[in-house]
Task: inverse folding
């Protein structure tokens, strides 16, 4: 699952959120610190995360459609 990073404009809190592939991309989830909806998505670590995930998938399973 991709991880998105968000920043709260009200309290300045940075937080991450796991998003399922079936979920729509959420641009302004509630801040876990102050529960404000005044948040925005940051540039995330999705690329790094999916790259390491692909490595583990290809090393432990030959049935993945990654070609
Ligand atoms: Zn906040």
Result:
């Amino acid at each position: 699952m991709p991880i998105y990073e968000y920043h709260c404009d009200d309290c300045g809190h940075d937080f991450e959120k796991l998003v399922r592939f079936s979920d729509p991309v959420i641009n302004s989830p509630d801040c876990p610190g102050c529960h404000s909806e005044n948040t925005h998505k940051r540039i995330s670590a999705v690329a790094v995360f999916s790259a390491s995930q692909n490595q583990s998938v290809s090393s432990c399973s030959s049935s993945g459609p990654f070609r």
Remarks:
- The two ends are 19 Å apart (CA to CA).
- The beta strands are 3-8, 14-18, 39-41.
- The chain has one domain: 3-60.
